[in-house]
Structures
1.
Amino acid sequence: MRRPSLRYLTLPCGLLLSGIAVAHGVAEDDRSFIESSAGLQLLPFLYLGAKHMVTGYDHLLFLFGVIFFLYRLKEIGLYVTLFAVGHSSTLLFGVLGGVRVDPYLVDAVIGLSVVYKALDNLGAFKTWFGVQPDTRAAVLIFGLAHGFGLATKLQDFKLDADSLVPNLLAFNAGVEIGQLLALTAILIAMAFWRRSSRFIGQAFTANLLLMTAGFVLTGYQLAGYLHA
């Protein structure tokens, strides 16, 4: 039997290894800018939001899992919108409402969201429990967790209260732009991959790797929580 190529299967682990050292954090130069900025800074915060999403390996892994078996743009748009509504709501609610969540625990939940989507793609819930969770509700709920993950990063900084709302809205808009850019790149790669006759055979292995990446993310964050 011909062994499937690993050309596309290493995407989840590659994204994970490229970013795990920073643990969903903020680069030092960006941190310095955020803490020193005063007044209305719409374009810089727009850029920072987009950058954070494009380099946020945990968000990208989840999105990769969500669109893995989606072929119609209408369906992709629905799930991405649900995810965006979820993480936008808790990002704004967390920062503006001062609602704090332990960053290690919320990032552990984000890791579990990756595990969930991989298991869902593998049909594990139907096989093991005889039920299929509502994927739309799950994407919305996990979107809420991803938003709190974004909020915990901004809550670490001293933000200028006078321009907090417009700057935060610009940051959130940047996150959506970054999500769109990342999603476009993923969809282009997926389109080429799906044309391959080996896609179905490789899909199982790809989702096993995705699940493994999710477990590694979860374990990494739980270890940080216990150490702290």
Note: Confidence is low (pLDDT under 50) at residues 1-23.
2.
Amino acid sequence: MSRLSGEGRRVTAEDDLGLFGPGSVTWRVHDEPILVVAGLRSLYLQALHPRAIAGVVQNSSYRSDPFGRLTRTSTYVATTVWGTTAEADAAAARIRRLHARLRATDPSTGTEFRVDEPDLLRWVHVAEVESFLDTATRAGLRLTPAEVDRYYAEQRRSAALVGLDPDSVPGSAADVDAYYRAVRPDLRMTREAADTALFLTAPPVPGQLSLPWRLGLGFGPPRLAYLGVAATAIGLLPAWARRMYGGLGLPTTDRCAAVAARGLRLALRAVPRNLVEGPIRAAARDRAERATAPVTPAAYAAAVVP
């Protein structure tokens, strides 16, 4: 049976708006198709942490199944942002169970460590959410400084899902800047980081495809388009991260990357929504529309009469 909210809206179990909802900055940021570039940027950034990338390389199937891993990661992020509270909790519980079983060896010391150590989870979280926000705003999404801070504060809920203490996670732009300054001495270019960056920039073409498709994806326009996206993701990295990869940390690089991101954002926003909007996002939009729809007399009667 449904009920009515204090504002007279219909509320059912299926109308749960999840961890954030339509009034959140998170929904505004993650409604941007340009975040496909942000995801790639975050992977380049995360690879600069030696223990974090060691945990990925030693436990992940990203080399043998890169597209499958990308799909699973994208689905998880979409579920935590757009799914119901129950869906987000269930997805996070699966991730916590998986991470709790995984171990890796530190390439420098040879010591074994858990991949769900708080320091590693915090690094992955901050690199990811900062990449989402930075890419979206530099591509043209307008947010006030207060909204930027609100996004980081909201994303503490996502951090809690993977087992972090929300109070230990940066909750504002100033906190993120301070965190990066504190963690930078631990970051460096390693063989694993270089190999991962090369893999991200020129991923292999799936071998099960027919020869024409393999040639097209390997040497044709799709490959060139992807290289452009990868170059934009690298250009959007913080200047200090680009320098670690051997690139230039010049202001002109920042400006060129921002121009490229703005052009790509305009192109993606011209694509029909049904082609870029996944089913999880579409379901969230439907729930939000139901939650804010006016209540008719018939609906009111159905809600209050057992």
Note: The longest strand covers residues 103-105.
3.
Amino acid sequence: MHEKDRHRVILSAVQDRSLVTVIDLCALTGASEATVRRDINTMDERKQLRRVRGGAEALTTAPFVGLAGRPFSVNETMNSAEKQAIAAAAVELCQDGEPIIINGGTTTFQMVHPLASRRMQVFTNSFPIAEHLLKNSRNTVMLSGGIIYREQNIILSPFDNDVTRNFYAKRMFMGAQGIGPLGLMEQDPLLIQAEQKLIGQAEELIVLVDSSKFANRSSLVLCPLDRIDTIITDDKIEDRTAAMLDAAGVTLIVVPSGAAQKDGVAALPA
């Protein structure tokens, strides 16, 4: 495929889906990753699209029915080593046989690997988490009901009488778009509505976020800081952020950046 033809295909895909990964564009064009990345750089310079980590996004987003935020396939490429370490520390808090909730997200997804040797009762709204645990573990898995959002690989329900209300959890593990003095932040109202229901079913709320999330902000607050029991993050967290969490009574667990093992994990109790 000639360069001009590849550019047409890339532009068409980006306009249709708003954000497309390099892997997807390689499949569409039949070109190598290196070629696609060069095409994206060229089109970014020409202001035809915007280059992002792992792919490209449209300069203007066409209205569509979906959730705000980047797709799962793009988010999972970001800070992957930190996410693995954070997830490993999260699983260390679990005891076999406990009922837990794992909310859909790329950091919480990394919990599936250390959970492979456990026997938990897991409630999740994430297709990737449920599928992996079913195939690679002996955990009992329950999925929530609702509408499937393909880009984020999650199931959300706007209704109050779904199966969520029938599950009790010792702990809920979740990620976040951002964290600030006002609390946990997300971008989409439907996502917030669904997550608030899940939070209400758990005794403890444990938030898994890499340190970059403390710089992110959104216009919607999911819950205040004092509702969070524990935050697990990497050692790039700033001292002033740690002090903010301590003042709110949040237990902070810090893992070494890039370390996916439990060795060296430090807990900073509130």
Note: The radius of gyration is 19 Å.
4.
Amino acid sequence: MQSLSTRRTALRRAAASLAVATGLMAQPVAAQSFDLENLTPEQREAFRAEVREYLLDNPEVIMEAVSALEAKQQQQQAAADEDLVAANAGALFDDGYSWVGGNPDGDVTIVEFSDYRCGYCRKAFPEVEQLVQSDGNIRIVIKEFPILGQDSVTSSRFALATMLVEGPDAYKQMHDALISLKQEPSEPVLSKLADTLGLDGEAILAKMSDPEVDRRIKETHELAQRLQISGTPTFVFGDQMLRGYVPIDGMRQIVDQIRSEG
């Protein structure tokens, strides 16, 4: 990113060129001798009028500048995200407690930060499932990241308690059920949900207050903070971070890109 002094120098050079072209200066001089901060009132007014007229005659220049700025910001964000992912790779891809599915030996790992009450997480769920199942060579990690209120926290605690009581396969069953649950996650609703899946609902409810559940949620929140994640769903594909919902075709393109670069 350019420093303030560099930007000022560039602006002075551009202004000097424009001033010569518009007659504010009789002949070319060094850019350093043309100081925007020391124009006479008449020069400043003429300069502003010339710039305004140029932009009105060429409005596409503004859109080009905006597009260039957006592209530059996106590149900078992507580079910063790659650094964040690299610095937190262990906690992201192999924390020892998050559910891992798909192909454990897959050549591409996807990490999803998800909230059960998030509408876009629910929209993404079947597409992520389809991607993983149809590809066959993707490893997926689910991070419990409840940020949308008490119902989100309750749902995540119940899912994590299911993992502790019944194991990873039961957790995946519960995860899939909770992501589509339309009722509020009250204790009777959650207990009945567990029973319909053939799980011990009462034991899972009792486990929700276990300190290990607290630890896992806390560590995931701390990881998200380090990664500057504030919304769901957020995905990490390899070394790329995707903040928000991405349709399945877009996800496939990213997976193909990762493989082509690998």
Note: The radius of gyration is 27 Å.
